[in-house]
Design a protein that fits this description.
Length: 255
């Protein structure tokens, strides 16, 4: 498959263009030649030196990640930027990255993966970013207690040995759950305004404690990396449906 076709297919499926004005990341092909062929695609959460080196060892033609190397552009390719980009160019490894479009995609996204873990029904889009969304909201098939929510997430997600932290400020019966993977506590006000019982995300901020407590919402912090493995794994499955060879590089941070 031509690299251009590979990228165009994912761009269209993930509605990359619709997020152009709301995402600091340069979604789509970030590093790569104008013309090349993709036979083997490698998938990872982060485009870091470690994952890039493993993708090269795996014989990848393209590395697909959630977190790429371009965030609003850069003027110089030096230091850490050079260390990441040089092995891509030297080994003819293209880099395709997709950030917010992958967080909120209703089928392939990170939030959708966590919603599957929690068996949420009646799903709708959540966490507004301009005219788009980066999360999902749904109903628990069976109500959770805060401890049960912690246990479900801890059992299903690879947290790198880190305990799922729960701020237990919501109702005893958790039924209405919102999911915003990664760093999602900025949407606590939206959750409170919509009557959400619990917000599941990856990592928190200091101010989230008081905001959650005052809003009466339980917050589950299951790890930034752990909550954002779902999207790239889903994209791997899509690539396999296209007949491509694939590999997945797991490089958990524990954060």
């Amino acid at each position: 498959m031509d690299l251009s076709e590979f990228c165009d297919r994912f761009d269209e499926r993930l509605r990359v263009e619709d997020y152009a004005d709301v995402d600091a990341a340069a979604n789509g092909l970030q590093v790569g030649p104008d013309v090349t062929t993709v036979e083997r695609a490698v998938f990872a959460v982060d485009a870091a030196v470690g994952t890039i080196e493993e993708a090269v060892e795996a014989g990848g033609d393209v590395l697909v990640t959630h977190h790429g190397v371009s965030w609003g552009g850069f003027d110089r390719v030096t230091g850490r930027k050079y260390d990441r980009i040089a092995p891509l160019v030297e080994n003819d490894l293209a880099l395709y990255a997709v950030h917010l479009p992958l967080d909120g995609h209703v089928e392939l996204g990170n939030a959708a993966g966590v919603a599957d873990v929690l068996d949420l029904t009646d799903r709708e889009r959540f966490a507004e970013v301009g005219a788009e969304h980066v999360g999902l909201r749904g109903r628990a098939s069976e109500p959770f207690t805060a401890d049960a929510l912690r246990e479900r997430l801890g059992d299903a997600l690879d947290t790198g040995g880190r305990d799922v932290q729960v701020l237990d400020f919501g109702p005893d019966r958790i039924e209405d759950v919102a999911v915003v993977t990664g760093s999602g506590t900025d949407w606590l006000d939206e959750a409170g305004g919509k009557g959400v019982d619990a917000l599941v995300t990856g990592e928190g901020k200091q101010k989230a404690y008081h905001r959650a407590r005052e809003a009466g919402i339980t917050v589950a912090l299951a790890g930034h990396y752990a909550t954002e493995t779902f999207g790239v794994r889903s994209l791997r499955s899509v690539a396999e449906e296209w007949g491509l060879e694939t590999a997945y590089v797991d490089h958990p941070t524990g954060l």
